[in-house]
Amino acid sequence: MKQHILPTLLLACATAATQAGTPLVTVPDTPMNGFADAILPISNPTYHGSAVPKTNIHPIFMHQQHPNKVNAAGTQVPVGGDLNLIAVQFEFAFNERLSLIATKDGYIDFNPDQTLQQTNGFANLAAGLKYAFILDHEKQFALSGSAVLEVPTGNRDVFQGYGNGATNLLLTGLKLHKGWQFSGSAGVHLPFDSNEESTTGFMSGHVSYHVTEKFVPLIELNWFRVLSEGKGQGAPLGPLVEFDSSDLLNLGASNGKLNKDAVTLAAGARYKFTDRFNVGAAYEAPLTDEENGLMKSRITVDAVFTF
Predict the structure, then answer these.
(1) How many helices and strands in the chain, by DSSP H and E?
(2) Which candidate, 163, 178, 242, 284, has a CA 20 to 30 Å from the CA of 35?
(3) What is the rounded CA–CA span in Å between residue 256 and residue 229?
(4) pTM of this prediction?
(5) Is residue 235 a contact partner of residue 162, using CB atoms and an 8 Å limit?
(6) Over the stretch 132-157, which tens digit does the pLDDT of each residue have?
(7) What is the maximum span of the chain, computed from C-alpha positions, in angstroms?
(8) Where in 210-250 does DSSP place strands (E)?
(9) Where in the chain are the domains?
(10) What are the φ/ψ torsions at residue 304 (nearest 5 degrees)?
(11) Phi/psi zone of residue 118: left (φ > 0), alpha (ψ -120 to 50 degrees), beta?
């Protein structure tokens, strides 16, 4: 039954927009478009996107190193190893204010060195709608809200597929000024089953500058927080670990509030080959204790095809 929920949601969203008389068009990147130079953030791609609706395809590769030890069951448990993710996000703009977004999918290759089992499988699927409440081309300022449904279709071997799904509510802002870009997102992950997943919140910030027309270095800061811990009835790590706040995994940890905050810093750049195609890369590391999470470091490489 779970596999049929997301296709039904996508079809319903597209049908609703069509019946409302909204033309299925995208906004061309012309001089009249004040957001033609806007770029996507790189880190925290599940939650931190663009405030401006645009039709695009966004393939992502992530390589994450695990800490040598993590805090669990009142001690430090050896883990090490790494996690690799291959995913493809997409967005379809019905018009300049409303778009359909698919924010989570992909294949996870989980390779710990110790304690945990090496395994692989698919991530959950998540999709929803984004609407730009403010879209001021002249002032180059945008503010949008998104409502995303995450469906537990993933494989439990990679800590996905637990619970009854969740709703992600997001607010994203964007400001461009003389080659600078400032953007940020904030939101909450609200599980339908709080026994198997934790309720979490996040804030992300992005600053970049067009050094040249094509080369754009950037820096990003991400803060994740456990708002309400789970009951440890979901993923097998839930009753053990003393943390539970990240962009990819939700363990439903019953002791997640012992280390409820996780902060990461990412630095990287985008290179624009054309107005329609660019690539990005960023290195990310935690500013909070790495033992209170599954990230020691992360490299994210992506590409953006805009239509």
Answers:
(1) 1, 16
(2) 284
(3) 5
(4) 0.88
(5) yes
(6) 999 999 999 999 999 999 999 999 99
(7) 59
(8) 215-228
(9) 2-30+40-306
(10) -130, 120
(11) beta
| Contact between residue 37 and residue 52 where contact means Cβ atoms under 8 Å apart | no
Tokens for 301, please give them.
Answer: 């490489």
Residue pointed to by tokens 């992300």:
204
Closest C-alpha to 159, from 89, 203, 112: 112
Taking a C-beta distance cutoff of 8 angstroms, is the pair 123, 106 a contact?
yes
CATH architecture of 2-30+40-306: Beta Barrel (2.40)
* Both tokens assigned to 248: 């990819």
Residue 245 CA to residue 265 CA, distance in Å, equals: 15
Q: Output the CA angle 250-297-268, nearest 5 degrees.
A: 110
Cα separations (Å) of 200 from 176, 197, 234? 29, 9, 15
∠ CA 70-71-76, nearest 5°, is: 75
Could you read off the pLDDT of 205-246 as tens digits, one per residue? Answer: 999 999 999 999 999 999 999 999 999 888 889 999 999 988
Phi-psi region at 21: left, alpha or beta (left = phi > 0; alpha = psi -120 to 50): left
**Quick one: which of 121, 31, 136, 51 has its CA closest to 91?**
51
